[in-house]
């Protein structure tokens, strides 16, 4: 099944599909972590508008994975690391696969293609922040991400722990062709 998929750069016309994946994934993934009222009040239109703006930001790279027939079922967004980390120079901002399409290799493929694009932009390391309670965070460990650190945050009125995973050498981690 995965061979019948395409990964491509996202464009503004994908914003609605990406917003749906985002909302559905948040409601599924974070149902035991974030307040139910917060998740129920996720505004699809507002998120779609924010994604449209993000899709136009030249420093951000957005990719979608489509199932056969051209319907996006997952996406990834990344670019320069946002806190001036001296070791990890690029960052995964978001990676979500729609419920019902998870555990089929889509996330792994999106991560690998993003790493390839970032490497071509002279980013040789990458990191991601994920909520400690996120049941999908083991994905990053299974793809070779190493524990980098943790921080306390407050989100949706709740104190939470975020964990960073990193890949120091993305060319080696994702078997990318090296120049």
Q: Describe it for me?
A:
The chain has 179 residues and is an alpha+beta fold. It has a single domain, classed as Gcn5-related N-acetyltransferase (GNAT) (Aminopeptidase), CATH 3.40.630.30. The protein has six helices and seven strands. The chain has helices at residues 15-29, 36-40, 44-55, 106-120, 138-142, 170-173, and strands at residues 6-9, 61-66, 72-80, 90-97, 126-131, 146-155, 158-167. Helix 4 (106-120) links the parallel strand 4 (90-97) and strand 5. The radius of gyration is 16 Å and the shape is globular. It starts with 5 loop residues before the first strand and ends in a 6-residue tail after the last helix.
Shape: globular
Structural class: alpha+beta
Helix content: 25-40%
The count of domains is 1
Poorly predicted regions: none
Quote the distance from N terminus to C terminus: 32 Å
User: Strand order across the biggest sheet?
Assistant: 1-2-3-4-5-7-6
SSE string, helices as H and strands as E: EHHHEEEHEHEEH
Could you tell me the CATH topology label. Aminopeptidase
- What would CATH call the homologous superfamily? Gcn5-related N-acetyltransferase (GNAT)
Count of alpha/pi helices: 6
**Major sheet summary line:** 7 strands, mixed
Approximately how much beta-strand content do the residues carry? 25-35%
Average pLDDT taken over every residue: 92
- CATH architectural grouping: 3-Layer(aba) Sandwich
Number of strands: 7
- Radius of gyration from the alpha-carbon trace, in angstroms: 16 Å
Please report the first level of CATH classification, the CATH class: Alpha Beta
